């Protein structure tokens, strides 16, 4: 981004609406990404929310690597078989 180019401001509602696709790496609009990053750099509330969401995503990914106890797996299998 050139220094003389002003970034159009977005509000918190727009930032939050775009936050999940940004965090998940699904945002392909460079200008929208630039606006969101600018907003996150200036808005403590939205930045904090983005950090909480990132931490939650990490925890979810990490928990997916662990194995459920055998008793839980057996109960789930039995429930599925009943359907």
Characterise this structure.
The protein is mainly α and 83 residues long. The chain has one domain (12-82). The chain is 70% helix and 0% strand. The longest helix has 20 residues, at 44-63. The model has no long low-confidence stretch (mean pLDDT 89).
Quick gist of this model?
With 83 residues, the protein is an all-alpha fold. Helix content is 70%, strand content 0%.
Can you give keywords for this protein?
mainly alpha, 0% strand
Helix content: 55-70%
Report the span from N to C terminus. 56 Å
Radius of gyration: 20 Å
Number of strands: 0
Count of all domains: 1
pLDDT averaged residue by residue: 89
The total count of helices amounts to: 4
Q: Name the helix and strand elements from N-terminus to C-terminus, one letter apiece.
A: HHHH
- Given helix and strand content, the structural type is mainly alpha
Segments where pLDDT lies below 50 for 5+ residues?
none
Strand-residue proportion: under 5%
Give the SSE layout:
Layout: H1 12-23, H2 30-42, H3 44-63, H4 70-82
